[in-house]
Amino acid sequence: MPQMDGITFLKKLMSERPTPVVMCSTLTEKGSATAMKALALGALEVVHKPKAGVKNHLEDASGDLIHAIRSASRANMKAVRRIPLESKAKLTADVIIPAGKGPVSQSTSDKVVAIGTSTGGTQALETVLTQLPRAAPGIVVVQHMPENFTRAFAERLNSICRIKVKEATENDRILPGQVLIAPGGRHMLVNGRGSHARVSIKDGPPVSRHRPSVDVLFRSTAKSVGRNALGIIMTGMGDDGASGLMEMHDTGARTLGQNEATCVVYGMPAVAMKRGAVDREVALDNIPGEIMGFGNA
Questions:
Q1: Which of 40, 65, 173, 281 has a Cα-to-Cα distance from 197 of 20 to 30 A?
Q2: Residues acting as catalytic residues
Q3: Which domain holds residue 58?
C-alpha cells in the first residue's frame, strides 16, 4: 500500500516466499468473499477491522489477535503450496527494446546512474537520495508503482532532497544533480543518441510483469551509455532487473546490489547476484557514497 492492495500482495508473497500471514482489514469480515479469498491464498487467519471505532475494536479483539499471531508463528510453511500468479505469459524487455550485444547507440559521454527497486523501495530511495549533494551525477529510477502515484512520490522527494527530483517526461535530459523517476504505468528508456543522454517514455505491455520495468531501463542504459553507467538493483520481490543488470555488466558498466541485511525483501538483488550480474553488494547507507565515487571517477 499504496503500491498494491492486500490481496494482490498476499498472492505475490505466497507465490514467491510463503510466509505466515494474518490479515486484518475492513474488507475481511468473517464469511466475506475477500476473507475467503485471503484464506484460499494462504492467509492463516483473517481479523475484521471496522471502518469506524478501530482503536476500541482492536483493543477488544486484542486476545483474538494475539492468539492468531502466536498460532501463525508456529505454522509449518513448508507444507503450504506456492500459489501460482494468475497472469499472462511473462514478457521480456524484447517487446520494448530489441536485444543486442554491447551498446549500439552510445555517443554520449554523460555519466548515468540507473536504479531499479520495488517492495520497500520508496523508503530505500528516500534514504539514498536525501544523502546526495547537488553535485551528484544524473540518476534515472524505476520504482514499481502504479500511475498517478509516481508524480506525488517525486514531488515529495524533491521537497526533502538537495538534488532535484521529478517524474520523467519524454525527452528529459539526464542532468547532474537531478533524478528522473519513471512515470507509473509506462516504461522509461535511456537514449544516448546525440551529445547528451535523455529519456524516452513508452507505452507497451508489462515486462517481467511490471510497467515500468527495471529490465527495460537497464537494457536501454546498457545499449545507450555502456561503460559510462552505474546500475544499482535494490530491495524488491521477483526478478525484474536481473537480466538488464547482466546486460549492463557485460557492456562494462559498474553494477551494485543492495545487500540482504538492509533489504526489506531480498528478491531482485538476490536473483541478480545469483546470475553474476552484481559486481559487489553494499549496505543501503553506503549506496550514496558509491554513487558519488562513480560520479567523481
A1: 281
A2: 118, 144, 240
A3: 6-79
